[in-house]
Amino acid sequence: MRTINTMLHTLLWKPHGRKLSPVRHDASHDDVFPNLKLGLNQRKLRAAVLEWLPFVKRYEEKDGSVVYKQASIDLANHLGNVLNFTYSVSEPADGEWGVPISEDSSNYSGLTGMLQRMEVDFVAAPMGYTEGRDLHGDFLPFVHASSNGLILRNTRGRSKLSSALTDPFRWQVYAVGGAVLIGVVLLYLAMEWNNPFYNDDKSVEKGWKPAGALDAVMYLFGSTIHQGGVHLPESSSGRILVSFWWLYIIVMTAAYSGNLIASLTVTKEELPFNSLDDVFADDSLKVGFAAGTILQKTIMTSNNSKIMRLWEKIQASRSMDSSTFERNVTIQIKKVLDENYAFIRVIRQN
After folding, report:
1. Under a CB-based contact definition with an 8 Å cutoff, are residues 114 and 74 in contact?
2. Among 281, 276, 290, which residue's Cα sits nearest to residue 318?
């Protein structure tokens, strides 16, 4: 005769794997399906991660341990609380995100390779989607879109204070303003030195004299920067000339101040390149990017003629300088500041 065990069992995650656990005869719905309330039963998963601001930031503690924070880690922590699991974090030894390392594209490096080899259970970092990567892992719905561009050093010096102060007017305006200042100074001196007002008895008695050339120049020039002076003319003709000069200065300084505020608020940069053809024409310019990213795969496999020429430019740059494929973004930015170098990376995210 056959004996049948009628006791009900359910699968639960135990320290040594999934095992059957008996269910009481008076069990509720939650006891029969405990994973509805227990989730993954505090199972410890393995996560892979790489720093990618602003989603993942790597911090080194004083005791030498490494801690990861920011949006992607917050999402992993939230999922751990909801699904009842913990996780450990590791980085790929090659520091890459994942590009094919075999001719048939069956083997991947970086984070994708760790998923492919089942060394980790999930990646707690943003990953660009490709058909090849999709074969080795399931992607969450897209959470952001990004655009790539060239980061170049500003060699025009428009960030200098001297440039900012001269930007409001064209050079022709400054030239005409200087000519007007010289003309007004000469007219002022001619009027004052030949004015009979200073020769009458009252002027002589009070000691009124026309201002000297240096005093006149300092007063009229000082008024252009709203400084004025102490040597006001005593004659009516001189004061009328000074009044019209001040009206001119008030209008010009108001226009200058408005243009200065506008130029500081809205930066008008003249780009050193207008197209990729200009990049190709500069033989001394080196171009690079962080290796192991989706950008590398996209540029390598593109059939667009200009992107193919860009890849040739990148390879030529690498033959001269192997650090053009440096994965550390900080080092790449330093190369941009110190050399004639263009760094291709994400410049806009939505």
Report:
1. no
2. 290
- 89 burial (CB, 10 Å; 0-12 / 13-18 / 19+) is middle
- DSSP letters, 184-251, are HHHHHHHHHHT-GGGGSHHHHHHT--PPPHHHHHHHHHHHHTT---S---SSHHHHHHHHHHHHHHHH
Q: Where are the alpha helices (DSSP H) in 16-170?
A: 29-32, 35-38, 71-83, 110-116, 131-134, 161-166
Edge-to-edge strand ranges of the sheet holding 85-90: 85-90, 43-48, 122-123
Residues 134-183: pLDDT tens digits?
A: 888 888 888 777 777 888 877 655 455 566 778 788 889 989 988 998 99
Query: For residue 90, what pLDDT is reported?
Result: 93
Measured distance CA(139)–CA(133) in Å, rounded = 9
Q: Kindly report the number of other CB atoms within 10 A of residue 265's CB atom.
A: 7
Q: How far apart are CA 242 and CA 248, in angstroms?
A: 10
Peptide bond into 54 cis (omega under 30): yes
* pTM score over 0.70: no
Residue of 329, 300, 350 lying closest to 130 (CA atoms): 300
The distance in angstroms from the start CA to the end CA of the chain is 69
Distances (CA, A) of 9 to 3, 6, 19: 17, 9, 9
Looking up tokens 């004061």 gives 239
Instruction: Please count the residues of the chain.
Output: 350
Q: How far apart are CA 295 and CA 272, in angstroms?
A: 23
